[in-house]
Design brief:
Structural class: alpha/beta
Strand content: 15-25%
Oligomer: single chain
Helix content: 10-25%
Mean pLDDT: 90
């Protein structure tokens, strides 16, 4: 065997593929094409690789442990070659950046180092389900280009400020999870109407003020504000912005007792359940409470 063939063979082993460069689906899952024992890095030449033509593609063996699969970047070149893929899973593969393609409808890229989702102006993206939880996003400007979104999970990222105006075109959005970030400010440029939003999860952030005066979330049923720094909640905004609210998680904030007492009474009159999201057995730090919610 010549040196060139030996080198080719070693490279093929290193990247977990056959000599022919055709990537095969594992037989671990019935309806998905799973590719494991493979590496994609930013500088890698993928022109000789043949990717499976499959509507549901998965890189890695998540939730099983897999230390052999790394997809650090999805380039424009690769995105163009994955146009037939409508559902993509890439959990725990060290993903950092990705170019989105228009036909993709479901993306689960949770548990990575993901910080950059690249969208192109003028494209008609069809993405509906997007899970970016447990990543490193500091900005979500890409949302403005995703009008078909129905669910967006951004738990456990590095967000500090969020403009809800980014969701202006996402009128089908029904669940938005922004929990466990570092959000101090949520802003809106003018009135925002999200007619199908049912669940808004903002717990475990750093909010001291919630200005919902420009929001019109007429179908919102669950609002989670637990573990923030809130002192005050405007009942006027609850009446006008969340007319169908059913459950409101309020615990572990900095509520002022007099205001909390009045707020809870009004919530109960409206049929809204003010609830504690977290079970806290040690209540010694809480001298006063209303419906299990501490105040100061």
């Amino acid at each position: 065997m010549s040196c060139k063939l030996v080198l080719c063979f070693l490279v093929a082993i290193a990247f977990g593929c056959a000599i022919g460069r055709k990537l095969e689906c594992n037989e671990q899952r019935e309806n998905e094409c799973e590719i494991s024992n493979f590496t994609i890095v930013e500088s890698m030449d993928l022109s000789e690789y043949e990717f499976p033509d499959h509507p549901h593609l998965a890189f890695g063996t998540y939730p099983l442990s897999d230390d052999s699969t790394y997809v650090v970047s999805i380039s424009k070149e690769l995105a163009d070659r994955l146009q037939s893929t409508e559902k993509l899973e890439m959990q725990n593969v060290s993903l950092q950046s990705m170019v989105l393609w228009t036909n993709l409808r479901t993306l689960d890229a949770s548990h990575n180092y993901f910080f950059e989702l690249i969208v192109e102006p003028g494209q008609s993206y069809q993405l509906r389900e997007l899970n970016l939880s447990y990543n490193r996003f500091q900005s979500i400007d890409f949302v403005a280009a995703l009008p078909a979104l129905r669910t967006l999970d951004l738990r456990h990222n590095y967000l500090e400020t969020v403009s809800f105006s980014l969701f202006d075109m996402a009128t089908d959005l029904w669940k938005l999870n922004l929990a466990n970030n570092r959000i101090q400010t949520i802003s809106t440029d003018g009135s925002l109407h999200l007619p199908r939003l049912s669940n808004l999860l903002l717990h475990d952030n750093l909010l001291s003020v919630l200005d919902a005066s420009e929001w019109r979330f007429s179908m919102l049923q669950e609002l989670n504000l637990a573990r923030n720094r809130l002192r005050y909640l405007s009942m006027c905004e609850v009446n006008h912005s969340f007319p169908h609210l059913q459950t409101l998680y309020m615990d572990e904030n900095r509520w002022e007792c007099g205001h909390l007492n009045a707020t809870v009474r009004q919530l109960l009159q409206l049929g809204v359940k003010p609830m504690a999201y977290y079970d806290t057995e040690d209540e010694e730090h809480c001298s006063k409470s209303m419906e299990g919610i501490c105040c100061y």
